[in-house]
Design brief:
Layout (H helix, E strand, L loop, with lengths): L23 H42 L3 H8 L4 E8 L10 H13 L3 E10 L4 H17 L5 E10 L1 H6 L4 E4 L4 E3 L11 H7 L23 H26 L14 E3 H7 L4 E2 L2 H9 L4 E3 L7 H19 L5
Parallel strand pairs: 1-2, 1-8, 2-3, 3-4, 3-5, 4-7
Antiparallel strand pairs: 5-6
Helix pairs in contact: 3-4
Length: about 325
């Protein structure tokens, strides 16, 4: 008997793949995968809600901080206040202590109807003479426009070079006994690599149009004519610095010629030399000099995500340095 006739003795037909009833393990695995998928979906929805809420809070806070200071003060019923503007760090374009930032804060402080007086709190080693000059000029303009609103400079750790250039426009300068004040001078520095190139067997190739265009090239030998030109530049800028300081403080300064030599002085020495007027902090000036103890900060702040992260990073670094006993 053969198997040629299927009607006589058929062989069992094979079932297509995938049609076998699922085993108990496969069922549990499917249920587990479904559960994990649903849980991830719920978690994603929760995080979505969280970030949307965070965005709303950020935008709301930014809008509140962007409101005019007059609105904030009148809403609080603050009455007369001392306006504070912080000048912290190197005075340079793009920095927190740039002329754009400081001038914006000063204008807002003077224009506010609740301002009884302005404090410019300085902690700076100096920076760009141009940026410092912009701030100095704006202080004179604002004092002329608002003659009844005094401006006082309060020095924290340091008020040197461009920092003092700015402070010199204030009605009075206050400092701590341990503050560092002065550095009334100008500098230009760099490096020369002429001998290094010779030792390394490197040939310098410099092409210019204009006989002095390669002036102060660090890979070329110093030209006496260029050196003399730089000295004149520095002397001219230095004299501008001296004139700016004397414009407001001529009668207060001692006759000691070393005042304009570029040296820095302690607050105690600066008081004797006439570089500062009295000892005092921002709180003391607000309370005892201006007569408006409540201080309102008009310093422009960067409330972008990048700015917030930058400030947070600086704060964390400061805390780390403090806990490890390091010092700047």
């Amino acid at each position: 008997m053969g198997w040629d006739n299927p009607e006589q003795d058929p062989a069992p037909a094979s079932k297509p793949a995938g049609e076998d009833p699922p085993t108990a393990m496969e069922s549990r695995l499917f249920e587990r995968m479904s559960f994990e998928f649903l849980r991830e979906q719920r978690a994603a929805r929760r995080w979505g809600i969280f970030f949307k809420l965070l965005a709303v809070l950020y935008v709301s806070g930014f809008m509140l901080l962007s409101l005019p200071s007059d609105w904030n003060l009148s809403a609080m019923g603050a009455g007369k206040v001392t306006a504070l503007v912080d000048l912290q760090g190197v005075i340079a374009h793009g920095n927190a202590a740039s002329a754009d930032n400081i001038v914006s804060g000063l204008r807002a402080a003077f224009e506010n109807s609740s301002t009884a007086g302005v404090i410019l709190r300085i902690n700076s080693p100096g920076g760009s003479p141009v940026q410092a000059g912009y701030i100095n000029d704006e202080i004179y303009r604002l004092r002329e426009k608002y003659p009844d609103t005094p401006l006082y400079a309060v020095v924290e750790d340091m008020c040197a070079s461009g920092g003092y250039y700015v402070a010199a426009a204030a009605d009075k300068i206050y400092a701590d006994k341990g503050s560092l004040v002065g550095s009334i001078g100008v500098r230009m520095d760099g490096f020369g690599f002429v001998e290094s190139l010779d030792k390394l067997g490197i040939e310098r190739r410099l092409f210019t149009a204009g006989e002095n265009k390669g002036f102060l090239d660090p890979f070329s030998a110093l030209d006496p004519v260029h050196v003399e030109h730089v000295r004149k530049l520095l002397a001219d800028i230095h004299q501008q610095f001296i004139n700016t300081v004397q414009k407001k403080r001529r009668d207060k300064l001692s006759k000691d010629p070393s005042i304009f030599s570029g040296l820095v002085w302690t607050g105690t020495q600066a008081l004797e030399l006439g570089l500062v007027d009295e000892f005092g902090s921002a709180g003391m000036v607000a309370r005892d000099v201006i007569g408006a103890e409540k201080i309102v900060d008009f310093t422009p702040r960067d409330y972008s995500v990048e700015g917030l992260l930058k400030r947070t990073g600086v704060t964390m670094l400061s805390e780390l340095v403090s806990t490890r006993g390091w010092s700047w």
